[in-house]
């Protein structure tokens, strides 16, 4: 369940960086009351794991709107948006890195499968931002390079989603996810 929420978070961020995010209205619904209890350490780990997923979902509002027609304003707008995406991914990768080692070693694989592609995606967005910031003006070549880096970043994030679909957390973590505040469906 938590890995599925994380998959959703990465997909949401991917769609947001592609300009396809749409806010959804709704009301939280209470989840089922757990019948068994996991160790506090595993519940705390799951709470933090789901907290990163929630952060990525909440940060999915980073949008690439139509840049202004003024070249200098367009350059600044693109740089600002790329900077926000980099900041989101920096926080997510840092917070995921803090989850290792997990209370149960088998959970470390789930983190590694997520961190590696998110880190590569972040690096592509950093490269795109550096290209924009280092250019005297937004030429067609600069824009093409930026779009190439962004496309590669989104592809890497899609790889992460594919990899995560085959990862599962140990049963104790699944139960802990039902107890952790950040893992409850909203």
Mean pLDDT: 80
Question: Strand share of the residues?
Answer: under 5%
Q: H/E series, N to C?
A: HHHHHH
Number of helices: 6
* Span between termini: 13 Å
As a percent range, the share of helical residues equals: 55-70%
Shape: elongated
**In total, how many beta strands?**
0
The biggest sheet amounts to: none
Q: Uncertain spans, ≥5 residues at pLDDT below 50?
A: 14-24, 28-34
Rg for CA atoms? 18 Å
Category by helix and strand content: mainly alpha
Quaternary assembly: single chain
Spell out the key features of this protein.
mainly alpha; 0% strand
Describe the protein in words:
The structure is a single chain. With 186 residues, the protein is mostly helical. The protein has helices at 2-17, 40-58, 71-97, 108-134, 140-164, 171-179. The longest helix is centred in the middle third of the chain and has 27 residues, at 71-97. It is elongated. The relative contact order is 0.20.
Outline the fold blueprint.
Blueprint: H1 2-17, H2 40-58, H3 71-97, H4 108-134, H5 140-164, H6 171-179
Short synopsis of the structure:
The protein is mainly alpha-helical.
